[in-house]
Amino acid sequence: MEQRKKISVSELASMKGRDKIAVLTAYDYCTAQIADKAGTDVLLVGDSAAMVVLGYPNTVAIGMDEMLMFCGAVARGAKRPLIVGDMPFGSYQPSISMAIENAGRFIRSGCDCVKLEGGLEIADKIKAIVDAGIPVMGHIGLKPQTAALWEGYKLQGRTAESAARLLEDAWALEKAGAFSIVLEMVASEVAEHVSKKIAIPTIGIGSGAGCDGQVLVLHDMLGIYENIKPKFVKRYSDLSKSIFEAISAYCQEVKSSRFPEEHNTFHMSPEELEKFRKRI
Ligand code: KIV
Which atom of ligand 1 is nearest to the CA of 48? Predict the structure, then answer.
């Protein structure tokens, strides 16, 4: 049987320039198992769970307890992929000690490392978490937690000034000890340049092919939401249609007594049935 060894942070870092890194979000035991079997290198338990699983309008609504529940489920389902816990809004901003404490809770829930959104402004927190022994993935470019509160979801690195700031942020995170950085919705020229200028792998989402790896939100790539299709997403399936068709067929078959059939049915032994009849 194929040996499926757990991917470590250092192994992931060594994939830069050698193998592209396939990352997906995951939030539950079942899809984590499937994503593992299908060869995903990294599973990110993203705070996107707030939107795609819990139905909130943005990611700021989700808290530590909800995130940890998803992390535990993913960690129980996936054996080989590196599991990244996404620190939710408010769990690392207030203080360095709170950032370390909450990062530790992600590790106790089964994650291998954590991800924080932010550049230079949170480099001190990233360094402190790394110094406490917990590997950190950075996340710059579009930062959905704060973008939701300020400028909205917009392409980053469109001007020379913002491109230069992104490079500064990437350097600051690398210096702080991050082992990898997510680049979200960054102009592809900038993402490619940043990827060449830092020694740690970049994981792009909406940032073009020049990154060292790619991440997509599982529900987006599976087509679970009929009406949500950002330009950077490729749909590999049309699950909303398949799920709808399956559930419609089930409802119709229940209502018309076509389900359950004989092969879905359990029976008592004829002797016991006879005894039961006599008794009633
Ligand atoms: O929460 C999430 O799913 C993410 C990815 C979009 C990178 O942070």
Answer: 1
